[in-house]
């Protein structure tokens, strides 16, 4: 935040239908219920990796985060699938980050531990998305191979007022104790930026910086950011 440099990206899915933009909340649940989330998730992952390789060819060593659903994460071939996509797209594994939610980790701890260790062995980073909205948050941070936690936007909204600031401070301190990077989601105001910096959270994402962008818009945004911030 202090440097205004872009240090990471997140792949978000949007449906450009003939009737206009359809937000993910309108179709993701249907995709999960029908198991279409598996091919859809694979498509997102492959496109994100292809774009990441395109960025690398342009000189941007910028990791791209991709969300995994419960069904994707628990698929018995998930490690093999990700490795094959990395090979096809020629994306270095350190430029891919996988995001999972707390609920996924709580489903079967031993199985999750094995899957996360496999990801780490491949050189892929793992982050916990929407941190603080689940349960047993303290117990699994030590057990599982994760690199980052992302503070849920519900705890950023309202900062510096109300109790949200107190909760955010506790999460930031917790992440520091476990040597984890912490990212604030849903940042929209200068007051939130100031609060987070003062409390040792140095990475943020949200509308304060940009709304979701298409590939060409993003490339232009990154080029402008590079000119502005060096």
Task: Describe this protein's structure.
The protein is of the alpha/beta class. It has a single domain (9-223), classed as TIM Barrel, CATH 3.20.20.450. Helix content is 48%, strand content 15%. It is built from eleven helices and nine strands. It has helices at 28-33, 37-57, 70-74, 78-89, 102-105, 109-121, 137-143, 153-156, 164-177, 190-198, 215-229; strands at residues 9-10, 15-17, 20-22, 64-67, 96-101, 125-131, 148-151, 181-184, 203-204. It is globular, with a radius of gyration of 18 Å.
Summarize the structure.
The protein is of the alpha/beta class and 230 residues long.
Percentage of residues in helical conformation: 40-55%
The major pleated sheet works out as: 7 strands, parallel
What series of H and E elements makes up the topology?
EEEHHEHHEHHEHEHHEHEH
Query: Numbering strands along the chain, what is their spatial order in the largest sheet?
Result: 1-4-5-6-7-8-9
Beta strand count:
9
The share of residues in extended strands comes to: 15-25%
Number of domains: 1
The gyration radius over C-alpha positions equals: 18 Å
What's the CATH C level?
Alpha Beta
- For the record, the CATH architecture stands as Alpha-Beta Barrel
Low-confidence stretches are: none
CATH topology: TIM Barrel
**Mean pLDDT, all residues:** 91
Task: Quote the distance from N terminus to C terminus.
Answer: 14 Å
How many individual helices?
A: 11
Give the overall shape.
Answer: globular
Based on helices, strands and strand pairing, what is the structural class? alpha/beta
CATH 4th-level superfamily: EAL domain
């Amino acid at each position: 935040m202090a440097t205004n440099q872009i240090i990471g990206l997140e792949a978000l899915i949007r449906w450009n239908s003939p009737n206009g933009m359809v937000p993910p909340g309108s179709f993701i649940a249907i995709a999960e219920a029908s198991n279409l989330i598996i091919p859809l998730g694979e498509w997102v992952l492959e496109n994100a990796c292809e774009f990441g390789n395109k960025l690398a060819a342009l000189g941007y060593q910028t990791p791209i985060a991709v969300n995994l659903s419960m069904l994707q994460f628990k698929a018995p071939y998930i490690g093999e699938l990700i490795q094959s996509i990395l090979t096809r797209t020629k994306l270095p594994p350190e430029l891919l980050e996988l995001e999972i939610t707390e609920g996924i980790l709580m489903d079967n701890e031993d199985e999750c531990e094995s899957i996360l260790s496999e990801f780490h062995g491949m050189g892929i980073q793992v982050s916990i998305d929407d941190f603080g909205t689940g349960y047993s948050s303290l117990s699994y941070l030590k057990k599982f191979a994760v690199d980052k936690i992302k503070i849920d936007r519900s705890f950023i909204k309202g900062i510096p007022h109300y109790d949200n600031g107190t909760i955010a401070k506790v999460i930031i301190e917790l992440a520091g104790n476990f040597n984890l990077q912490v990212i604030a989601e849903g940042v929209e105001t200068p007051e939130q930026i100031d609060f987070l910096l003062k409390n040792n959270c140095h990475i943020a994402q949200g509308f304060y910086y940009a709304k979701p962008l298409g590939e060409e818009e993003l490339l232009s945004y990154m080029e402008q950011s590079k000119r502005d911030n060096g």
